[in-house]
Amino acid sequence: MTGLLSEVEGIVQGHRDGHGFVVRDDGEADIYLAPQEMRGVLHRDRVRVRVIRYDRRGRPEGRVLEILERKKTPIIGRLLHEGGVWIVAPEDKRYGQDILIPKNATAKAQAGQVVAVELTEPPSLYSQPVGRVTEVLGDIDDPGMEIEIAVRKYEVPHRFSAETIAEVSKLPDAIRPADRKHRIDLTDVPLVTIDGEDARDYDDAVYCEPARVGRGKGWRLVVAIADVSHYVKPGTALDADAYERATSVYFPRRVIPMLPEKLSNGLCSLNPDEDRLAMVCDMLVNAKGEIHAYQFFPAVICSHARLTYTEVAAILANTRGPEAMRRADLVPHLLHLYEVYRVLLKARVERGAVDFETTETQIVCDENGRIEKIVPRVRTDAHRLIEEAMLAANVCSADFIARAEHPALYRVHEGPTPEKKTILQNYLRALGLGMNISDEPHPREFQAIADATKERPDAQQIHMMLLRSMQQAIYTPVNSGHFGLAYEAYTHFTSPIRRYPDLLVHRVIKALLQGQRYRIGAAFLSDEPRKKGGRSKTPAEELAQWEAAGEHCSACERRADEASRDVEAWLKCKFMREHLGEEFSGTISAVTSFGLFVQLDALYVEGLVHVTELGGEYFRFDEVRQELRGERTGVRYAVGGRVRVQVIRVDLDGRKIDFRIVRDVLEARPPARGKGRVLEGAEGKVSELERVRQADREVKAARSRRASAKSTARKSPAKGTGRAPHPVQAAKSAAKKSRARRK
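-> structure tokens emitted (743 positions)
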């Protein structure tokens, strides 16, 4: 623990309620900043703070000593005209302060419009920040405005540099004869792409045929991936822009691509009936689903068809149906793909990989970008077929690089930390499942628990706890394996159009095939220790560069996820404003100390039932069981519980939807014996709660009457004893009279 009055550096993390925290560089516990301290700083400032005290739980509180660095990126918000003063209310509520705008610095924006602001005067303890409008984005209701806000709010690069545009303009529209040199011609192999209906770039194609593997039956599985590295060279402006983005960002109806459209949808997209450059992973898979042998090589391919998941699923379900008749020449190859998928899936199960079934949703928008409906994404064998083929290619690329002992970025997913493991063990014991995880858990233990509980009403909660106990997957040169997939080594090789780590893996594989070494951060490949005009990097320096690249790519991936979630949340809030006051049935998806999150059945939208909306009694949060329990009635709310709710509030700026419970449909789990009353059905629970609330109201009324009587007695002596009845007796008496009146 850091000592009192010690000084540390870190990044300010604002909170919408006015206070904030300093996320420390050394990774220790965050330092709390009181609202008064936050007046002089802004969200995302880099600061030096002094720890001035600790609260009862040992958490540090700090005082800002110095602002070391302030982000120069514009702040996005709504321009407002209040009391004769122009201000901008930041879209990101973590900034906590409105920005004053001089009347000559509004860039002719109208009140209510969304603008970008550049600070001209920083905030202080006694004054608000001052800024000027640098860009007018438009009205809040303009189609696509939520995306314009998100890309700026999360600093997603969305404009290519002039140098990149110039470089791309010089690229050919089709592959040239010189591009075909030193490549294997696979244009006669009936490779096909299989993607979603809305896909625009196709970076992988597959083919499978039966083959002898050793002395037994097997398959030859070919996975061809767009050869992006042929066009995106190290040291170019195009490469710099791709690295800065590190990933494509997907929004409903729009994509912010990692590469310019000429590459992502053109030269590097494996469009049907067009020759394309590819890096190929050619594998032999035996009857046990084991990869017996593999090889990598550059090739020229020609996709024979652009298939969709829906189409392939229909063909596999009925090989004599209309879809199969239209693709008669490809049906045998698709059946071979299905066969190899089945054995790869069997090997996955035997390996003990985690495979939880979760419901993903898709937002369907109209032409104006407004939500028409939200529908679940249905995963078919066609999805899983492609997934297993990509996993196989990724494993081969990791094995190829690891055997060569060449540095690269691995996709690492570690198991639970000791703290998360303890929380999960306590949770599983509290459920009384008779199943637990060991001190050194294997992923098959997680899968066994998931399989054993999938029919329980609280299966979703159990699976979510299993997932949350694992760490987030990252990119790193230190190979620690992939816990969830149960692989000793795993990389991303299959999507270089939309992920920069995959592009780096391609460059490493190419270098190894040429007997060379790829040096990250340099515009050359070399198999010599030194080059003219400079010193070769030491292994430690090279590893540090790979680590920096991994951290950058991991951060950009998180940034893209946050931006996508923000836009989806905005669209859902906009959608739910049209349903204020309406009632829906739903399932409790999460339980916290401050309330319940409920996902609506029909709309696939999640909102909060705050604990104050649960009734008059006090609810205690059981952290181990992840449930709320009423102290009087023993009524429990746990994940998986069915409720009916009413939409009562929608906060578009805060991306929040609030519900109130109309009635419980059924209990997710009845109270344990002796620890609360089991209520008979929904009506029983509602009536019991109503009786308790009525009793509470009558007790309060009796206390109020007693206090009034005492006050009157002090002013004028009462006749008789002047003694007021006990409040509980008064409540009982009032309840009897109330029941008598109802009869």
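The two ends are 66 Å apart (CA to CA).
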